[in-house]
Write a structure and sequence with these properties.
single chain; alpha/beta; Rossmann fold; 2 domains; 8-stranded mixed beta sheet; 4-stranded antiparallel beta sheet; globular; binds adenosine-5'-triphosphate
């Protein structure tokens, strides 16, 4: 499955659709600066599905909200650029600057579909308003497109559903409506922030499939945010692992699953419930992430890493290249680093998923 996805990705021309360089985002919290994003650089490829994975508070939402000018009022871009459509989004200042991009070229869906829906308005009208606004079409033609969109996102009996209100829809169906609204804007990039976290497992799988279908059908670029690596195994072409406001490892899905390099990625993978033996307690990562109010020295994960080296507490590791498509910020990849034994769960992972070493 993953192999096929990656072959497909290799075939594609790797055109960069959005490029982030040295991005730093800060918040003012009662007069003190909190650094939520610590100098991230990332290229997003056209048509790919990039998953951003990390614990709560690692900066996944803040990072991607900055692509749409949706940072809270006490937050700002302190350094760096976000290049998209020949513009530097980091320099946008007014709401007018964002008109074209937000909801148009870049759209976002969230965990709770109700945040995007008006409980007092019929579903059909909510989708149709987006069609009218972004496609500049009115009346019957807009309604036709709306009904087709509802059908496309898997809502049965669209004519009947058009006249219903959000409370008449299940959680999964509401998320489908939100996806229809996003697609009505014909976005180039769709950011999905934990879109399936509030749904039960079977519905989760259906929504993941729907996002995959939309990605193919509309040549969408998808950024999929989740705290659960298990969710992305079958949807993501690439995975970026975030910790304390930084991407500490990035690679193709199979590289992250079969040849992970950063001890934090090991820890995340080790806590996958799929790997637990019957009756065994689920692995939990000891300790807590560092305070973002202070400057972080060295590898931010070092205090929680039983395999940390001395240098991990002193100097921030650079990225070391594992392959052309895979890099990780860990001193363990330095040629002089001692060889450490992989955690047992990671060895089991190889057995479980049957993967081999990546290039
Ligand atoms: N308005 C704000 N003011 C102060 N700090 C903020 C604000 N918004 C976010 N932060 C901080 O920025 C950091 C990153 O938050 P973010 O929501 O991006 O994390 P996340 O990885 O998406 O986690 P979650 O899954 O819980 O949303 C956190 O420490 C958070 O407390």
């Amino acid at each position: 499955m993953l192999e096929n996805l990656n072959k497909e990705l290799n075939k594609k021309d790797k055109e960069i659709i959005l490029s982030v360089s040295d991005l730093v985002i800060k918040f003012d919290l009662r007069g003190k600066d909190l650094t939520a994003i610590r100098k991230i650089s990332l290229d997003l490829y056209k048509g790919e599905n990039l998953a951003i994975v990390g614990e709560s508070g690692s900066g996944k939402s803040v990072f991607t909200k900055s692509f749409m000018g949706l940072l809270d009022k006490n937050g700002w871009i302190d350094n760096g650029s976000i290049n998209f459509d020949n513009k530097n989004l980091a320099k946008f200042e007014t709401e007018k600057d964002w008109l074209d991009v937000r909801g148009g070229k870049i759209a976002m869906i969230f965990q709770d579909p109700m945040t995007a829906l008006n409980p007092l308005k019929k579903i059909g009208m909510q989708v149709q308003e987006a069609v009218e606004l972004h496609q500049k079409i009115k009346g019957e033609k807009a309604k036709e497109i709306t009904l087709k969109l509802l059908e496309d996102v898997g809502i049965p009996f669209p004519k009947k559903r058009y006249n219903q209100y959000p409370h008449e829809f299940s959680g999964g169906m509401r998320q489908r409506v939100v996806i229809a609204i996003a697609m009505a804007c014909k976005p180039e990039v769709l950011i999905c922030d934990e879109p399936t976290t509030a749904l039960d497992v079977t519905i989760q799988a259906q929504i993941l499939n729907l996002i995959k279908d939309m990605q193919k059908k509309y040549s969408l670029t998808v950024v999929f945010i989740t705290h659960d690596l298990g969710v992305v195994a079958n949807v993501a072409d690439r995975i970026a692992v975030m910790y304390a406001g930084d991407i500490i490892e990035i690679g193709k899905s199979e590289e992250i699953f079969y040849n992970p390099q950063h001890p934090y990625t090991w820890a995340l993978l080790s806590s996958l419930p799929q790997l637990g033996e019957k009756g065994e307690d689920l692995y939990a990562i000891d300790g807590t992430p560092p305070s973002l109010f202070k400057e972080i020295k060295g590898d931010a994960f070092a205090p929680r890493n039983p395999r940390a080296l001395k240098i991990d507490f002193i100097k921030r590791p650079p990225y070391f290249e594992v392959s052309k498509t895979h890099k990780a910020r860990t001193w363990l990849l330095h040629p002089d680093a001692p060889k450490v034994e992989l955690p047992s769960a990671i060895k089991k992972l190889h057995e479980h998923f049957g993967g081999g070493k990546s290039e």
